[in-house]
Design brief:
Length: about 375
């Protein structure tokens, strides 16, 4: 088995998934306390941001492999592997507790005039928007993610008071009825108003970098927070993509951001990571990240995957317009579920919930011992 250079950085990607762990003691590891077991790691060794080796290490041979590493590499590897295996703590969302031992649907509810997929659908009518959120919840969404500012390429910035005016009345209606709500925003004032209105989680596409007040506010609120990777500066979500290795670079960016937020007083168990599909990434970058999504379990945080109806799906499907990307969206959703993603952020709730029920049925059958 190839031994990485002692100077290399190591990343551990779970692979070799098996149907069930029966009779495989010592040969498989359970992924993040969920419904998946895997039998090997792809150990990605990099120097200067570029891969120099990627041996496939069976779980059964892991101890021997670790024994051949430098002391520093072995210590970091053991910490990463422990995070990969550890169950994810449930998220407390107001009166509701969201368990993360199986994939859950986070429904997108935009109250914007210009979002790429459904902009203007609920503009100026908070009751209609709330009714749409109630329908999403009844259909099976575990969480409704309410947003009042488009983050598509070229979208205009929205004044924070306008964003509050769009989102607060919708959140109030949903939260009063016991629906779990997150606020999709980059602005501390909008976060604060949403939390006061009953939102229970913050979803910030800037990774709490856009607004200098955001980190302190989230730390003080003690609420769960989603941090998303993007390639540009704190105010540039769609910088021209340039990666030596998109999977490793996104992972390292998120790892550094987690460390900064923990140092600022945010509990690690309340941080959810999102690799930011479509944000400063081309088609090949997005596909590399989705193919390697299991790597992000090494961060020890729940994973949110948001790829619903995005541009790369159209690019792979004869330039299908936004409204004709359901099949591709479901394909990515199931790819995420198959790699242990805990939260799947989608537009098409009923279809996604049905797909995940079938996926869960197959997992349940695989995990039923044969008499």
């Amino acid at each position: 088995m190839e031994t990485p250079p002692p100077s290399a950085d190591l990343h551990f990607r779970p692979t070799g998934f098996v149907d069930a762990p029966f009779g495989l003691d010592g040969q498989v590891i359970r992924l993040a306390g969920g419904l998946l077991w895997f039998s090997a790691f792809e150990v990605i060794a990099s120097e200067g941001g570029r891969r120099v080796a990627a041996p496939l290490v069976p779980v059964a041979g892991l101890d021997d492999f670790l024994a051949g590493l430098s002391d520093a590499q072995a210590e970091t590897a053991r910490e990463t592997i422990a995070r990969i295996e550890a169950p994810r703590a449930p998220l407390t969302l107001g009166e509701r507790t969201l368990r993360l031992d199986e994939p859950r649907v986070a429904a997108i509810l935009n109250v914007t005039p210009d979002s790429f997929s459904d902009g203007g659908k609920h503009e100026g009518d908070p009751q209609a928007a709330a009714d749409a959120g109630f329908a999403q919840s009844t259909t099976g969404a575990a969480l409704i993610d309410v947003g009042g500012e488009s983050t598509r390429p070229g979208a205009a910035d929205v004044w924070e008071d306008d964003e509050i005016e769009r989102t607060r009345p919708v959140i109030e209606r949903l939260a009063r009825s016991g629906v779990a709500v997150s606020i999709d925003t980059r602005k501390a004032a909008v976060m604060e108003a949403a939390l006061e209105a009953g939102a229970a989680m913050v979803n910030d596409v800037s990774g709490l970098r856009f607004d200098e007040r955001a980190v302190e506010l989230v730390a003080k609120a003690g609420c769960p927070v989603v941090i998303m990777h993007h390639a540009g500066g704190k105010g540039d979500l769609h910088a021209e993509p340039s990666y030596a290795d998109p999977l490793i670079e996104v992972y390292d960016w998120l790892a550094d951001r987690i460390d900064a937020l923990v140092a600022a007083g945010i509990d690690r168990v309340k941080i959810v990571v999102d690799p930011g599909i479509g944000f400063g990434k081309g088609v090949a970058h997005n596909l590399s990240i989705i193919n390697g999504l299991a790597l992000f379990h090494g961060l020890g945080c729940p994973i949110m995957l948001g790829a619903s109806r995005k541009r790369f799906i159209g690019a792979l499907a004869n330039e299908a317009p936004v409204e004709e990307r359901l099949g591709g969206s479901l394909a990515v959703t199931l790819a995420g579920a198959g790699q242990g993603a805990q939260l799947l952020r989608v537009h098409d709730v009923a279809e996604t919930v049905q797909a995940l029920k079938v996926w869960r049925g197959m997992r349940d059958q695989a995990l039923t011992p044969v008499a």
